[in-house]
Design a protein that fits this description.
With 307 residues, the protein is an alpha+beta fold. It has a single domain, classed as Oxidoreductase, molybdopterin-binding domain (Sulfite Oxidase, Chain A, domain 2, Alpha-Beta Complex). It has eight helices and 13 strands. Strands 1, 4, 5, 8, 9, 10, 12 and 13 form an eight-stranded mixed beta sheet that branches. It has a five-stranded mixed beta sheet with strand order 3-2-11-6-7. A hairpin with a 6-residue loop joins β12 and β13. The chain starts with a strand and ends in a 13-residue tail after the last helix. Bound molecules: ligand MTE. The site of ligand MTE has 16 residues, from loops.
């Protein structure tokens, strides 16, 4: 597998979590889950004030257990620690993705075929959830731009709409109208074509676990994690900005969802975050630390208003 370490991330993959950090993290996740069980959008992290003494000097990768044991996937449950168990019924093979809309050659692509055609690269990226927690994840993925080149977008393609599978027999959560299903996300065509934007197919060199959005999910490292839509079955290029899920849930969510510590978003301030595994909060960075790579996409746009 080819390895592509994103320079922008400035993350040191060599640093491995030691046993004591790992153990204190399990306790932390246990407490966090107690808060999370209380409601769909409850923020356990801001309720948690203690500081840990063994703060790592630099960012380190989150462990496999953290990445695959603490998940947001509302098609299963709002309980982050229940998702991994519930998602075992997903059965993500075979799986196809339809790519159509404003393109010259629409296609239905089989994901296993896609994996043979494009060699996934390792891409280490931060994931910052609007709930105030973050992780550093060694994904395996394919640049979205490479996939979109296959279908040749027309000049009318200004946005890309992504949709998750709709299947209440597999996604128990879809049996209730807790959210407008199917989960839908969107990007501008410039965001979709940016080299940092990719479709993830694995983590730590293994196939993407069901709870992380098997077999293929979007990752947009400079945006809040909810933009990184899981278990995608449709990618459609469109002229108009798509109506996405979260702005329908609440007016507190906008289309762009760029990580911005200056602008309140969702249920409040986004100035600080808790890296899973740490108790002491850290400052959130503009564009999640990827400003050098992506700020030009928003030239002339007031980021505090266009949220
Ligand atoms: N995609 C779908 N289809 N359903 C979801 O509930 N949750 C989002 C995003 N993608 C979600 C989704 C949110 S809120 C976050 S923070 C990330 O997935 C979490 O990804 P992870 O569980 O792999 O950490």
């Amino acid at each position: 597998m080819a390895i592509l370490i994103q320079r922008a991330a400035a993350i040191r993959p060599s640093e491995i979590t030691d046993e004591s950090v790992y153990r204190s993290r399990r306790r932390f996740l246990g407490r966090a889950a107690m808060f999370a069980a209380g409601g769909l959008l409850l923020d356990p992290m801001t309720a948690f004030g203690a500081e840990r003494q063994d703060q790592p000097a630099a960012e380190q990768l989150n462990s496999w257990d953290e990445i695959t044991g603490y998940n947001n996937f509302y098609e299963y449950s709002p309980d982050k620690r229940a998702v991994a168990v519930l998602a075992q019924n997903l059965n993500p093979h075979p799986w196809t993705v339809r790519i159509d809309g404003e393109v010259e050659s629409p296609r239905v692509i089989d994901v296993d075929q896609m994996l043979r055609q494009f060699k996934p690269q390792q891409r280490i990226a931060r994931l910052r959830c609007v709930e105030g927690w973050s992780m550093v994840i060694p994904w395996d993925g394919i640049a979205l731009a490479d996939i979109l080149q296959l279908v040749r977008p027309t000049s009318r393609a200004r946005y890309v709409r992504f949709v998750t599978l709709q299947d209440p027999s597999r996604f128990y959560g879809q049996r209730r109208a807790t959210m407008p299903w199917p989960y839908t996300e969107g990007l501008t065509i410039a965001e979709a074509m940016h080299p940092l934007t990719f479709m993830a197919t694995g983590i730590y060199g293994k196939p993407l676990p069901n709870q992380n959005g098997a077999p293929i999910r979007l990752v947009v490292p400079w945006k809040y994690g909810f933009k990184s839509i899981k278990s995608v079955v449709s990618i459609r290029l469109e002229e108009q900005q798509p109506l996405t899920t979260w702005p329908q849930v609440s007016r507190d969510y906008g289309f762009y969802a760029n990580v911005n510590p200056r602008a309140p978003y969702g249920r409040g301030t986004q100035s600080r975050e808790t890296r899973i595994g740490e108790l002491r909060k850290r400052d959130t960075q503009l564009f999640n630390g990827y400003a050098d790579q992506v700020a030009h996409l928003y030239a002339g746009l007031d980021l505090d208003k266009n949220v």
